[in-house]
Amino acid sequence: MPDNTTAFAIAGAALLALAAPALAGQKLGEAQPIRPPETIYAKTCGYCHGRNVGPIILGRGLPAESVKYIVRHGQNGMPAFRPTEVKPEELEALAAWIENSQPRKEEHGQ
């Protein structure tokens, strides 16, 4: 028979797992909406790319397949992003958007 400490730890972990969606402003079982590529770039990619931290990626015609690979596996100082951070559908749209993007004059290094 497990002691009370173990039982409380298991119950606490289960409660946190059930509460996580609610804490994120989402109902249990409710899917998060798919974010547009512009939003993902602005909130995730643009934090480094275009600010002289990572290389400029917009307007370079980077192949979508390369973008997807690097996003999932990381490269040099760039971390890999899990499917829980950038959904597969979002990554497909983001990679195509980056491949077809135009350069932005407000981004550094151009």
Describe it for me?
The protein is mostly helical. It folds into 2 domains: 1-29; 33-110, Orthogonal Bundle (Cytochrome Bc1 Complex, Chain D, domain 2). The chain has helices at 4-23, 37-45, 64-73, 88-99. The longest helix has 20 residues, at 4-23. The model has no long low-confidence stretch (mean pLDDT 82).
CATH architecture call of the largest domain: Orthogonal Bundle
CATH topology of the largest domain: Cytochrome Bc1 Complex, Chain D, domain 2
Determine the structural class based on helices, strands and strand pairing.
Answer: mainly alpha
Through-space gap between termini = 66 Å
Tell me the count of domains: 2
Unreliable sequence segments: none
CATH class of the largest domain: Mainly Alpha
Radius of gyration: 19 Å
Total strands: the figure is: 0
Largest sheet: none
Strand content: under 5%
CATH superfamily of the largest domain: Cytochrome c-like domain
Number of helices: 4
Query: What is the mean pLDDT?
Result: 82
What are the secondary-structure elements, in order, as H or E? HHHH
